[in-house]
Amino acid sequence: xxxxxxxxxxxxxxxxxxxxxxxxxxxxxxxxxxxxxxxxxxxxxxxxxxxxxxxxxxxxxxxxxxxxxxxxxxxxxxxxxxxxxxxxxxxxxxxxxxxxxxxxxxxxxxxxxxxxxxxxxxxxxxxxxxxxxxxxxxxxxxxxxxxxxxxxxxxxxxxxxxxxxxxxxxxxxxxxxxxxxxxxxxxxxxxxxx
Length: 194
What we know:
single chain, 2 domains, two-stranded parallel sheet, 3 helices
């Protein structure tokens, strides 16, 4: 879910108090049984508010930077061959209106919760899962990229995949820096770089 939408919020429902889950730190909110309707509703509404606020802020600032870049480019280049800003201005106004509506509902605890959630999701999306991926690998590829040192053969749980792409026989491309690693060495037991 986080790969598809890093601003979604994850809630975990645990059994009774005696049960300790090692996964609790991986969720934005944890509820223990028995759960009452009011508690569930308040948790879901709070996580929804935090997720919407985070996603809206991200899109607002991204769009703001794009529009600023286009304006600066137009000022330095007067040929007018740049995409019109009308659609972006309309979306910018929508986002500003949503932020104006959400801002009074966000308190200091919500800000801390949002920051923790962003850090948690960023850690999930960038740190590799140390379970090695045995499917489709090769015993000849190196354990990491010789250029950027990205670990290969582990599930990175994001667009990096297993860290490399097999280009041909004994040729691999790093998913992060696109460095090519070619074949086996003269001893036919070690991998060499280009």
